[in-house]
Amino acid sequence: MELDTPTLLLDRNKLDQNLEEMSRFAVENNVRLRPHIKTHKSVNIAKLQLQAGAVGITCAKIGEAEVMAAAGIKDILIAYPISADLKIQRLRKLLENNVDLKVSVDSLEQLKSLQKGLEDTPFMLEVWIKVNSGLNRCGVEPGNEVVELAQAIVFLSKLRLGGVFTHAGHSYAAKSSEEIQRIGLEEAKAVVESAEACEKVGIPVPIRSVGSTPTYKFAGKVKGINEIRPGNAVFFDAIQAGLGVSNLERCAVTVLGGVAGVYKNRIVFDTGSKTLCLDKGAHGNNTVNGFGHVIHHPEVTIERLSEEHGVGIFDETTSLTLKDKVQIIPNHVCTVVNQFNEYIVHDGSKVIDVWNIDARGMIK
């Protein structure tokens, strides 16, 4: 089967290895696994994760949750604060369809909006308090602010507290494995101490959940943590390899690109920014060289991207010629996946299936 370019390739053997690694860690450390599907956005892969022992899934946006719910996946955490009236109407529809829904909360104003939006329904919504463990994005501060929010939830008729969680995304800016470990331990501490503070005033917190592919193996071992939510670990990518979290050989997704031109001091691939995206690191840390790793061609660095062109440079010479095809490991696989409609699934030597990227473009 000849494939056109650019095409998104998924190595089934590497995918299965990555799925097994997450599941094994969860079993060995007696924690629940609730993987984030924003990396793969695929019903097929989400169901494989559930078959491998995941208790449910995590979504970034309501649109992703709607796609997964329509496919029969019912235990869903939306790890994003929701307060707009239009979005609460969509939450109501998910509840009407018997979705076991959990939603992130991090402010009193948001609690009021959710309560008001559900008051004329028979539903009670489970909410999880988002704690800021250092990323300084969403979330209340650990300790007292968590307790104050938990106390407010207790008095609301349409909301119930199900958990405390965080995401240590700032681990992507770490300069060493030791720093990643430190961030992971701080991540767990923020959740555990916040949950314990709630329980000291008589408010139970059943779930204490941590995420982040770089940190989950550190945070997930801390006493008191009982759930992990890795996302990128389903595939890995060049940034994870740059961080030392994984290696390039474990990356399950590549982009099949074509050589569109070879010149004296440069080579052009048909994989521009609309294919490879512009990530060169995360949260201030440039962990990669160029805009993707060209497999078997270390002499080539993809130096710059325009929309349809990936411009590579090389030292002295390259064996690549016009019309050749290459596989490129993306820097940040999550954003690249969202550019494609489907995965071409292969076993390393031949194509074995085609899977839809069902939640592609679901950004609302």
From TrEMBL:
<dbReference type="InterPro" id="IPR042208">
    <property type="entry name" value="D-ser_dehydrat-like_sf"/>
</dbReference>
<protein>
    <submittedName>
        <fullName>D-TA family PLP-dependent enzyme</fullName>
    </submittedName>
</protein>
<dbReference type="InterPro" id="IPR051466">
    <property type="entry name" value="D-amino_acid_metab_enzyme"/>
</dbReference>
<keyword id="KW-0456">Lyase</keyword>
<comment type="similarity">
    <text>Belongs to the DSD1 family.</text>
</comment>
<dbReference type="InterPro" id="IPR026956">
    <property type="entry name" value="D-ser_dehydrat-like_dom"/>
</dbReference>
<dbReference type="Pfam" id="PF01168">
    <property type="entry name" value="Ala_racemase_N"/>
</dbReference>
<dbReference type="InterPro" id="IPR029066">
    <property type="entry name" value="PLP-binding_barrel"/>
</dbReference>
<feature type="domain" description="D-serine dehydratase-like">
    <location>
        <begin position="252"/>
        <end position="347"/>
    </location>
</feature>
<dbReference type="InterPro" id="IPR001608">
    <property type="entry name" value="Ala_racemase_N"/>
</dbReference>
<dbReference type="Pfam" id="PF14031">
    <property type="entry name" value="D-ser_dehydrat"/>
</dbReference>
